[in-house]
């Protein structure tokens, strides 16, 4: 929680700054000095408490620690494009796992000052108050969140097939541009469910624990637990997640997506 707040303070300070330095990592993929400032602040907090732990961050990659059994998974700015465009929908995500088991996570939304947090076996919270997933009984009429595969165009045809079928069943679908926040608001019960393809571990880690600790379910496209490795996520309360997974899986599974190239427009 302290690490997420420290990163968020840097982002809030730099949001809307003129002359913000921006670099392109790839098509539709940007990094700014704000990303780097947030990451430095987060790592300073983590290392002050746990100097031997390993760290995986979006901007500087994996930093091996003397204790390789514990790893922090950090997205210093989830929603960089929103940040650059002046859209105030972005967040900081900090997760921690031990031997593959997620232990703790925090997602901080700096501008409204909302802090989502979870610890394994201890529930999920928003600003200290317990939260839970929604009680919607199924996909029909559900309020969902998603994300377009803007960095993985080869998956677009499969995504659009799934989107079309989900769209016809759901009540509404939103695409806000921060997967971490989408997961957090699904844990809160604002969204009934969420699905997206080819995310990265740092987009998912903290939010995945929030979902589980709020009473929800998160899986990969095969219904398994390999979502941090594949980046393919279907989440929600139990009823919605089950129907959402069944629908999405008619158009894409882990094997079919794994065979696609990472970039460019590929075959449908």
Structure explained in plain terms:
By secondary structure, this protein is α+β, with helices and mostly antiparallel strands. The protein contains 9 helices and 15 strands. The strands form 3 sheets. An 8-stranded mixed sheet has the order 4-3-5-6-7-8-9-10, with helices on both faces. Strands 12-11-13-15-14 form a 5-stranded mixed sheet, sandwiched between helices. It has a two-stranded antiparallel ribbon with strand order 1-2. Strand 11 (143-146), helix 4 (156-169) and strand 12 form a beta-alpha-beta unit. Helix 4 packs across helix 8 and helix 5 packs parallel to helix 6. The longest helix is centred in the N-terminal third of the chain and has 17 residues, at 33-49. Residues 264-268 have low confidence and may be disordered.
List the topology elements.
Elements: H1 2-14, E1 22-26, E2 29-32, H2 33-49, E3 53-57, E4 61-63, E5 67-78, H3 80-85, E6 91-98, E7 101-109, E8 114-119, E9 124-126, E10 129-130, E11 143-146, H4 156-169, E12 172-174, H5 179-187, E13 193-196, H6 201-213, E14 217-219, H7 227-230, E15 233-236, H8 238-249, H9 254-258
Parallel strand pairs: 3-5, 11-12, 11-13
Antiparallel strand pairs: 1-2, 3-4, 5-6, 6-7, 7-8, 8-9, 9-10, 13-15, 14-15
């Amino acid at each position: 929680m302290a690490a997420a707040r420290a990163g968020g303070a840097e982002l809030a300070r730099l949001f809307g700054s003129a002359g913000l330095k921006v670099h392109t990592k790839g098509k539709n993929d940007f990094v700014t000095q704000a990303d780097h400032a947030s990451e430095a602040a987060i790592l300073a907090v983590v290392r002050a408490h746990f100097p031997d732990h390993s760290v995986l961050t979006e901007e500087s990659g994996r930093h091996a620690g003397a204790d390789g059994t514990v790893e922090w998974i950090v997205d210093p700015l989830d929603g960089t494009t929103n940040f650059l465009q002046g859209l105030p929908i972005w967040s900081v995500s900090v997760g921690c796992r031990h031997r593959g088991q997620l232990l703790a996570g925090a997602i901080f939304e700096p501008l409204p000052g909302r802090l989502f947090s979870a610890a394994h076996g201890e529930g999920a919270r928003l600003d200290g108050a317990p939260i839970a997933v929604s009680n919607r009984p199924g996909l029909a009429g559900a309020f969902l969140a998603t994300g377009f595969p803007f960095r993985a165009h080869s998956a677009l045809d499969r995504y659009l097939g799934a989107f079309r079928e989900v769209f016809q069943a759901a009540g509404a679908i939103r695409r806000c541009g921060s997967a971490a926040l989408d997961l957090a608001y699904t844990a809160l019960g604002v969204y009934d469910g969420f699905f997206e393809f080819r995310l990265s571990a740092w987009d998912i880690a903290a939010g995945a624990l929030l979902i589980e600790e709020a009473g929800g379910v998160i899986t990969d496209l095969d219904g398994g637990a390999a979502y941090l490795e594949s980046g393919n996520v279907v989440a929600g309360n139990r009823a919605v997640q089950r129907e959402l997974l069944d629908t999405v899986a008619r158009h894409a599974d882990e094997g079919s997506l794994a065979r696609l190239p990472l970039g460019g427009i590929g075959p449908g």
